[in-house]
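About this split. The held-out portion is used to measure sequence recovery: a designer receives only the structure tokens and must propose an amino acid at every position. Recovery is the fraction of positions where the proposal matches the reference. Here is one held-out target exactly as it appears in the evaluation file.
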């Protein structure tokens, strides 16, 4: 009776001595049971494939594979019994093949820093996850080596260090994949800090004039939501421009032509619009608190009415402005100065006129129904104010 010693391919430990009988398939079946693998091929010590039972001699040492090529257990990178035993000691060395790049580290590095991470679970106990190795004995990990390197260094010394030009988002994804929780927080903060700050610098007069010159007169310039805070736009032709929700606070718009411009929900607080042409302007729900609109012209000969419905006009100075037919419904004009304004046919229904100075105004046919006139001044009126204008 012949007997042989069987080892798992690439290993020289935990061998099994078995008797040889029957056909080669019988020996493979015995090898599967003894070694706990699905035996497919037998190799001798020199890597020769055994394909006939007659080639086996008594006391041969054979290596059993599951179909993979022969791995010499004594070759460089292979694992003999002594090396394998040392590999899983407290100061063992482990080689990782991450996306084709080799990293050598200790088991304690992978386990101790983040004990609940994927790497810690993979290498805390031998073969707990059935980790696959390449021919050099490196554990195969299908991830990006470029982004894995900072993670391994973090596990070594606890500091996040990256080279210039490395995308931190890639490192973050690797940290999430491996479950390095303490590193995830640092990376998210570093990414937030590295993002360029939002540019809220106001557009200058020079830049805006360049836009105007490049835009055909029949085209509408879209300036919705842009920041013009404090910019000097005086005396410019700004007809039909869309300034919706734009920041025009403390802007100098004196003597500018804003005919039919859209200033809906725009911020005009503290702006100077003295002498501006505001014919047919749309200023619904705009904020012009504290602005100066002295001697402005809201009156369009074609009959197109300026619309300031719901606008915040607290404390504005509109003295001497032409406002025939203007729509100021439910607007707030508290403490505003409207002396000597032409408000013929104006809609002031529901308007807050508390402490508003309307001295010398022409309010003929103006609609004041439901308006708040507490403390309002109506001295030197050009026309009589009838009750029908203010009472429903």
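Reference sequence for scoring:
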């Amino acid at each position: 009776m012949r007997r042989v010693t069987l080892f798992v391919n690439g290993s020289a430990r935990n061998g099994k001595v078995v008797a040889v009988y029957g056909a080669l398939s019988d020996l493979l079946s015995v090898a599967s049971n003894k070694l706990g693998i699905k035996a497919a091929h037998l190799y001798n010590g020199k890597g020769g494939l055994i394909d006939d039972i007659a080639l086996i001699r008594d006391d041969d040492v054979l290596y059993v594979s599951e179909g993979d090529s022969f791995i010499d257990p004594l070759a460089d990178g292979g694992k003999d019994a002594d090396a394998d035993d040392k590999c899983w000691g407290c100061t063992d060395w482990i080689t990782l093949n991450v996306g084709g790049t080799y990293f050598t580290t200790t088991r304690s590095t992978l386990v101790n820093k983040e004990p609940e991470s994927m790497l810690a679970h993979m290498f805390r106990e031998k073969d707990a996850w059935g980790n696959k190795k390449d021919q050099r004995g490196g554990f195969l990990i299908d991830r990006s080596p470029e982004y894995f390197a900072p993670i391994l260094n973090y596990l070594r010394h606890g500091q996040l260090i990256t080279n210039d030009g490395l995308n931190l988002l890639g490192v973050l994804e690797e940290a999430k994949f491996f479950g390095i929780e303490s590193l995830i927080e640092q990376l998210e903060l570093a990414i937030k800090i590295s993002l360029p700050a939002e540019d809220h610098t106001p557009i200058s007069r020079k830049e805006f004039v360049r836009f105007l010159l490049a835009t055909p007169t029949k085209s509408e310039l879209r300036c919705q939501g842009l920041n013009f805070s404090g910019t000097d736009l005086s005396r410019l032709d700004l007809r039909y421009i869309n300034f919706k929700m734009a920041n025009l606070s403390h802007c100098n718009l004196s003597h500018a032509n804003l005919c039919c411009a859209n200033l809906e929900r725009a911020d005009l607080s503290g702006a100077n619009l003295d002498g501006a042409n505001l014919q047919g302007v749309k200023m619904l729900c705009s904020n012009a608190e504290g602005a100066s609109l002295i001697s402005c012209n809201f009156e369009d000969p074609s009959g197109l009415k300026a619309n300031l419905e719901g606008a915040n006009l607290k404390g504005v100075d509109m003295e001497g402005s032409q406002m025939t037919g203007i729509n100021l419904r439910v607007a707030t004009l508290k403490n505003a100065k409207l002396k000597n304004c032409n408000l013929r046919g104006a809609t002031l229904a529901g308007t807050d006129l508390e402490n508003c100075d309307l001295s010398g105004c022409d309010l003929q046919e103006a609609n004041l129904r439901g308006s708040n006139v507490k403390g309002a001044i109506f001295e030197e009126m050009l026309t009589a104010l009838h009750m029908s204008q203010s009472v429903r």
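Annotator remark: DSSP finds eight helices and eight strands in the chain.
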